[in-house]
Design brief:
With 142 residues, this protein is α+β, with helices and mostly antiparallel strands. The protein folds into two domains: 38 residues; 88 residues, Glutaredoxin (3-Layer(aba) Sandwich), CATH 3.40.30.10. Helix content is 50%, strand content 12%. It contains six helices and four strands; from the N terminus they run H-H-H-E-H-E-H-E-E-H. A four-stranded mixed sheet has the order 2-1-3-4, with helices on both faces. Strand 1, helix 4 and strand 2 form a beta-alpha-beta unit. Helix 1 runs antiparallel to helix 2 and helix 4 packs parallel to helix 6. The longest helix has 18 residues. The radius of gyration is 18 Å and the shape is elongated.
Length: 142
C-alpha cells in the first residue's frame, strides 16, 4: 500500500496521454488533475515532513501529551485531522510511512498491525480513537 501512489501516477498519466493523443484536451486536463490529487494524497510525502518516533521519545513528557501516528491515504487519519481543526497543531504528528521505527511502534501496540491513527495520550496508546477524546485532551493542554 505504501507505494500505491506510483502505479496510480502511471495510470493517470497514461489516461491523460491517451486523451491528449485523441485531441480531448479537457478530458486530459481532468485526468491529470484528478491523478495528481490522488497521487499526492497517497504519497508518503503528503503532509510534509513529520516528526520521527525517536524525536518524540527524546522530548520531555510534557511536550508529548498527544502524539498521533498516521499515514497518507488513511481516511480515518484525515477524519481525525479535520475534526481537530485548529487544535491539531497542538498534537505531535508522526507519519509511519516516513519512519520505520514509528511503524514498528504502531505494530507493537496493535497486535502486529499498522492500524492508524494510533494516538498516544499521556503515554497510553489508543487505536482509532473518537476524535472527541483527542480534542478533549488537546483542550486541556496549556
Amino acid at each position: 500500500m505504501r507505494w500505491l501512489w506510483f502505479p496510480m501516477l502511471a495510470f493517470f498519466a497514461y489516461l491523460a496521454g491517451e486523451a491528449a493523443w485523441e485531441g480531448r484536451w479537457a478530458l486530459a486536463a481532468v485526468y491529470a488533475t484528478v491523478g495528481a490529487g490522488l497521487t499526492y494524497w497517497l504519497s508518503p510525502w503528503q503532509g510534509g515532513r513529520s516528526l520521527r518516533h525517536k524525536e518524540v521519545l527524546a522530548m520531555p513528557e510534557s511536550e508529548r501529551e498527544v502524539v498521533v501516528y498516521w499515514r497518507p491515504g488513511c481516511q480515518y487519519c484525515m477524519r481525525l485531522k479535520s475534526s481537530l481543526g485548529d487544535m491539531r497543531e497542538r498534537a505531535r504528528w508522526v507519519n509511519i510511512w516516513q519512519d520505520d521505527e514509528a511503524a514498528a511502534f504502531v505494530r507493537s501496540v496493535n497486535d502486529g498491525n499498522e492500524t492508524v491513527p494510533t494516538v498516544v495520550i499521556d503515554g497510553e496508546a489508543h487505536t482509532n480513537p473518537d476524535p472527541a477524546t483527542v480534542r478533549d485532551r488537546l483542550e486541556t493542554m496549556a
